[in-house]
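Dissemination and training. As part of the outreach component of the grant, students in the summer workshop were shown how a complex can be specified as a set of sequence lines and then modelled as a single object. The example used during the hands-on session is reproduced here so that future cohorts can follow it. Participants entered these lines:
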Amino acid sequence: MREVDPWRFAGGFLSKVLSARIPDEPTHAEIPWAEVRKPLAESRLALLSTAGLSMRGDAPFDMEMERKQPTRGDPSWRRLRSDATSATVEAHHLHIDTGYIARDLNVALPLDRTGELVTEGVVGTLADSHYSTMGYQGSDTSTLENESAPEIAAAMRSEEVDLALLAPV
Amino acid sequence: MIWPFQRLIGMPRVAAIEHPFGRPFGDVGDAATQREVLLAALAVFEKAREPGHVEHLPFVWHEDPRETKWHPAEPSPIIAMLKKRS
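and obtained this result:
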């Protein structure tokens, strides 16, 4: 199988900046692992995005903080309804063109596509809640790791989510 | 996307895809591709047998990278800062 080229769309400068942060060999801690206990057709699925998505009317991700402090990203998280669409969701993200998401939420958070798979019986059920964080975090990821991530996990457990699919943008 | 971050972070299961930033599942209105990418990503839940599995998905973006527009209107604050320093 051909290996995906991670830099195909990144451009020279961004590739150089990001690749400098990636070690040649694994340096991560032990990988958390939860066995898949049910077939997909019986599982409740939740989606997560790092596109800085929030429901219209909820507080958006803080872009002003990032503009003033470029080495910091907003570490908070937002809950998204399962019936969210590009009309009811806003994307606040300074590192991508959010215009595509504004036209079709499914490019980053495929709720419609997942709903179709539920109707077809391929996926068991769609969770009531889905989630977004801000992909850019800067050098300090402690709040995201120690507060936001556990809060999202607890929210998923309360809805008896079996599988979580995170799509970074 | 940048799947080699796997070496730094250690994600349980990864579906790597060669799509531009901001559109991991496919382009605007391309429901067929969005569906196929979603199905391929979901398949990794059952395919992955050990932590850290990376599945390289075979999808090819429909545009040449030189013509693919994904950048924000202005450089992000960190990129602007780094470019100033370089």
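Chain A touches chain B through 66 residues (CB under 8 Å). Students were then asked to discuss how this feature might be tested experimentally.
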